[in-house]
Design brief:
Structural class: alpha/beta
Number of helices: 12
Shape: globular
Order of helices and strands: EHEHEHHEHEEHHEEHHEHEHEHE
CATH architecture of the largest domain: 3-Layer(aba) Sandwich
Strand content: 15-25%
Largest sheet: 6 strands, parallel
Mean pLDDT: 93
Radius of gyration: 18 Å
Number of domains: 2
Length: about 270
């Protein structure tokens, strides 16, 4: 049994990389739904159905615990999955909560009422579907009060990163940051609500300026999962290593993933 890691494309590899570095003795199976990516402009029902299909494929690999390393799936599908679809012996976790806990300085499992926090103005950069879901604001409201969130849908950035067009991705990031700063001139924190965005984190940081704290997901998710497995070792399983699966063309996805992480990655057909 391994821990499953799912993303609509390649962005979740940034999370997987952090998970492997944090837990080198843990086995993982990564599944990219590259045939149907990107999810960011799909309907909520589409995202739900595609995410459920991917989770079932990871169950077939023996993964009873699955991380949705995709903010769009976490935002648009996770709550519905947990409430209406997920069997009692399986767990599916998203990448939003660890980031919100970091912003609000609350520990995992802190179920006390929402309270005022130091950060009052938060900029959220995410895909259009994630922004439309308002999942970040909903989860934040469970933990904090008095926080103003300004969300910027970052159309085109994921496509540019997946296509390897760094210049276009960087130009789009700067444009999206400028658009948000016109509406919220002085954010205290910026949340990168897409697992592709760590690859252009420096561009976000430069465009936002030195006074803005930028929160990125991979390391936060890795720490949260390590903590979860300490408390729930039955989901850890046995073995080590990583298996890579894709719904797309394995050779093409392997080449893109190798460019993406700058090391050799070999995908198999899902």
């Amino acid at each position: 049994m391994a821990v499953g890691v799912f993303d609509s494309g390649l962005g979740g590899l940034t999370v997987l990389d952090a998970l492997v570095k944090r837990m080198p003795d843990q086995a993982f199976v990564y599944l990219g739904d590259n045939a149907n990516a990107p999810y960011g402009t799909r309907t909520a029902d589409d995202i739900f159905n595609l995410t459920c299909a991917a989770v079932e494929r990871l169950w077939a690999e023996g993964c009873d615990l699955i991380i949705l390393a995709c903010n769009t799936a976490s935002a648009a599908a996770l709550k519905r999955m947990q409430e209406t679809w997920l069997p009692g012996d399986k767990r599916v976790l998203g990448v939003f909560v660890p980031m919100i806990e970091a912003v609000t300085e609350r520990q995992w499992g802190d179920n006390s009422p929402p309270r005022e926090v130091d950060v009052k103005h938060v900029a959220l950069f995410a895909t259009p579907a994630t922004v439309a879901s308002r999942a970040f604001q909903r989860e934040l409201a469970f933990r904090a009060i008095g926080v103003d969130v300004e969300a910027q849908p970052c159309g085109g950035v994921v496509d540019a990163i997946e296509q390897g067009d760094e210049m276009l991705a960087e130009a789009l990031v700067r444009s999206h940051v400028e658009a948000l700063l016109r509406r919220m001139p002085k954010p205290q924190a910026a949340v990168l609500g897409c697992t592709h965005f760590p690859l252009v984190e420096k561009v976000f940081a430069e465009a936002l300026g030195p006074d803005v704290t930028v929160y990125s997901q991979p390391d936060l998710t890795a720490e949260a999962l390590a903590d979860y497995l300490e408390r729930r070792p039955e989901f850890r399983g046995t073995g080590t290593g990583v298996k890579f699966l894709t719904t797309g063309d394995p050779a093409r996805v392997s080449n893109k993933a190798t460019q993406f992480l700058r090391r050799k990655i070999t995908f198999e057909a899902a």
